[in-house]
Design a protein that fits this description.
The complex is a heterodimer of chains A (287) and B (290). With 287 residues, chain A is mostly helical. Helices cover 75% and strands 0% of the residues of chain A. Chain A folds into two domains: 11-51; 54-286, MetI-like fold (Orthogonal Bundle). Chain A contains twelve helices and no strands. The N and C termini of chain A lie far apart (54 Å). In chain B, strand 9 (254-259) and strand 10 (262-268) form a beta hairpin. Chain B starts with 25 loop residues before the first helix and ends in a 5-residue tail after the last helix. Classes of the chains: A mainly alpha (287), B alpha/beta (290).
């Protein structure tokens, strides 16, 4: 064996330059991503802020050609439909995740379920919309908020399940063992101690699942559709922001197009607000 | 991997039939112990305990008696099965699908490993302290109250009294009496470990298993826990797994030396440390290996 001092050295200059190249590439990629996002936000603010006024948030849409009015029904519709979807999708996803992380583990059923969950996450949302359409729209005889909420819930479920599983897996086994060692039955150890230890992460996961569906349009097109009226009862076609944006942006009326921008800005603000909430929760969880 | 040079290492982990017995018959030792200490009651007795992690056997034919109100130290090199052994005594290993134990662990006449046994009750009677302090994600008060609430319907003032009593007995009350409503995770490492001890003794178990309880905390906190063990043994039967032989010598009356899944020697601590019967024990306690 040669002594290392006799072996030709690799050039330090070469290593330095490749270090710089990688750094620059990473920097460019990151800036590009941020710049594009920034651009989207700037455009939405520029064009959407003009639509924002008291009426925009409080009034119903006006008929075509008549100026004024707002999208209050779509805002309320989106909030209610998202809440319904959350009430369905988050608990179902949570318990699926608890099963995967705590009970199923390496069983064959859990492996199968994990694969199905992964596949579900990759299914285009429009197909989930078709599924919900097929299931509910012919049965109820009408487009409805229920069908929209179901489609959104199905999109949330795998996201919530996987996040829950990942986060519960971060809880050290000592925590499970300590709870069992005190004499707690498995379900109490899981819900009272393990889930509690992971609560900040789980809440974050739930909010991110909600954010994930709040901008969905495709699955609502043939489930909730849209409505120009106040819609509180989900048994009818349901007003919502994203389909409103879709329809208004496609319309030839400048007034509607402006409102589409305004509604886009509103969704961005809602999503941003949710993300900030997540940050705050995560920070508090660390303390 | 280093090739061990002792007899027991030739044992085939998977075939029980070819297992080479340890050089000492443990039953002889315990019988000898009983003769000398006929006044001592056996609280827990282990007979022919084997243990498997999946297909690899970790414990071979462990048989040992643990005496009531005495501290038994379990020593031995890393990976010799000390923790595995005590994890059988409260069946905590069952959390993992592929961990299997066979044999008998008799607690007051009942086989803990038996199929009809109420595991939750076993765990109430056989408490456990872990290597890493693991306070629950709740307040100091709730940490102690957790176990009590699992088994008893106590009213508020009774609960408060019991929490205070447990914290006092764990020598932690003075340090946390103003922090009862703060999260248990906010305490220092040593305090957290005493919190875990308080949590365990709150439900008044009969046996307390300690799995290297001092390995993650500083010497001063260790001293406090050792004093505590001295106090607690009047009420409980204590088993302590430790890597620290001085600690074993300080806190225990009996010591068991484990090696490669076998109990090589068991006897009075003073005897085992000053004049061990087995050469392996002597090699270990004099630092020749391990």
């Amino acid at each position: 064996m040669r002594a290392l001092s006799e072996v030709p050295h690799r050039s330090v200059a070469g290593r330095r330059s490749s270090d710089i190249v990688i750094k620059v590439l990473a920097w460019i990629a990151a800036s590009l991503g941020i710049a594009l996002m920034g651009w989207v936000i700037v455009v939405c603010v520029q064009r959407g802020i003009a639509a924002w006024n008291w009426d925009f948030f409080t009034q119903l849409p006006t008929p075509v050609g008549e100026p004024g009015g707002g999208i209050a029904n779509a805002l309320v519709g989106t909030l209610i439909m998202t809440a319904l979807a959350t009430a369905l999708g988050v608990p179902a996803g949570f318990f699926a995740g608890v099963y995967l992380a705590e009970f199923g583990k390496n069983s064959r059923f859990a492996h199968g379920m994990r694969m199905v969950t992964n596949v579900m996450m990759g299914i285009p949302s429009i197909i989930v919309g078709l599924f919900s359409y097929m299931l509910l729209v012919p049965t109820l005889g009408t487009f409805s908020g229920w069908a929209g909420a179901l489609a959104l819930a199905v999109i949330m479920l795998p996201v919530m399940a996987r996040t829950t599983e990942d986060i519960l897996n971060l809880v050290p086994n000592e925590m499970r063992e300590s709870a069992l060692a005190v004499g707690a039955p498995r379900w109490r150890a899981t819900l009272g101690v393990v889930v509690k230890a992971a609560r900040a992460g789980l809440l974050t996961g739930a909010i991110l699942a909600v954010v994930r569906v709040s901008g969905e349009t495709a699955p609502l097109l043939f489930t909730a559709l849209n409505s120009a009226y106040w819609t509180i009862d989900p048994g009818q076609p349901y007003a919502n922001l994203t389909v409103t944006i879709y329809q208004y942006a496609n319309s030839p009326f400048p007034d509607w197009q402006e409102k589409a921008w305004g509604a886009s800005l509103l969704i961005i603000v809602l999503v941003l607000g949710a993300n900030i909430t997540v940050r705050l929760i995560a920070q508090r969880g660390k303390q | 991997m280093r090739e061990p040079t002792t007899e027991v290492s030739t044992a085939e982990p998977q075939s029980q039939a070819t297992v080479v017995p340890p050089r000492i018959e443990v039953d002889d030792v315990t019988q000898a112990g009983q003769e000398r200490h006929s006044d001592l009651e056996v609280k827990m007795s282990v007979r022919n305990l084997d243990f498997w992690y999946g297909k690899s056997q970790a414990l071979f034919d462990n048989s040992i008696d643990y005496y009531q109100n005495r501290v038994t130290a379990i020593i031995g090199p890393s990976g010799c099965g000390k923790s595995t052994h005590i994890r059988c005594l409260n069946r905590i290993y069952e959390l993992y699908r592929d961990h299997k134990a066979s044999g008998e662990i008799v607690l007051d006449g009942n086989n803990v490993l038996g199929s009809g046994v109420d595991v939750l009750d076993v765990r109430r009677r056989v408490g456990m302290i872990f290597q890493k302090p693991s306070p629950f994600p709740m307040t100091v008060f709730e940490n102690i109250a957790y176990g009590l609430k699992l088994f008893y319907k106590l009213n508020r003032s009774e609960l408060r009294d019991r929490v205070e009593d447990a914290l006092r007995r764990a020598a932690l009350w003075d340090e946390v009496k103003d922090k009862l409503n703060e999260p248990g995770t906010g305490l220092s490492g040593g305090q957290q470990q005493r919190l875990c001890i308080a949590r365990t003794i709150a439900t008044e178990p009969e046996v307390v298993l300690m799995d290297e309880p001092c390995s993650a905390i500083d010497p001063i906190a260790t001293g406090k826990i050792e004093d505590l063990i001295e106090e607690l043994k009047h009420q409980y039967t204590i088993l302590i797994v430790t890597h620290n032989m001085q600690q074993a010598a300080r806190v225990s009356e009996y010591t068991a030396f484990f090696f490669q899944g076998y109990i090589v020697e068991f006897g009075e601590t003073t005897k085992l440390f000053s004049n061990p019967d087995q050469k392996q024990t002597e090699d270990y306690i004099t630092g020749r290996f391990g």
